[in-house]
Write a structure and sequence with these properties.
Elements lengths: L4 H16 L7 H8 L3 H13 L3 E4 L5 E4 L8 H7 L25 H17 L2 H5 L10 H18 L1
Antiparallel strand pairs: 1-2
Helix pairs in contact: 1-2, 1-3, 1-4, 5-7
Keywords: DNA-binding
Organism: Maricaulis salignorans
GO molecular function: DNA binding; DNA-binding transcription factor activity
Amino acid sequence: MKLSTKGRYAVMAMADLAAASGSGPVTLAEIASRQSISLSYLEQLFAKLRRAEVVSSVRGPGGGYRLSREAAEIRISDIITAVDEPLRATRCSNAKGCLADGRRCVTHDLWDELGRHIFLFLSSVTLEDVTERRLLGSASGALGRLDRALELDLSQEAAQ
């Protein structure tokens, strides 16, 4: 599965915003400069992030963008979803299947499950985890939360 620049740049920009937001609103020009992302591309991404209420804008002198809620409450999956980044690993473009005759390919379930695990992982990581570099090494970090989420998911499936 390949995550396009849309999703990667949105997460990079949001991490930059979270890290710099202690001093008030942050302009897209500042983010663009620090992250080497085109300003016009950031404008498109932040329009989507604002519509999804992940960020809010402040107009006027000293204006810019700020997080709409605490970084600990914003999941990476929220950001990816807000910019319309698909999180599927299958090649299916419709609900029917991967193959020309509408059937699913033999590996469809494998890639579908991989997509679910990627989404679970991105849902277990907060923007604060990224900015505080808490992704590896502890049970309280994102991977520990992912393990608990997978255990819960598996127990719910077994109960059904």
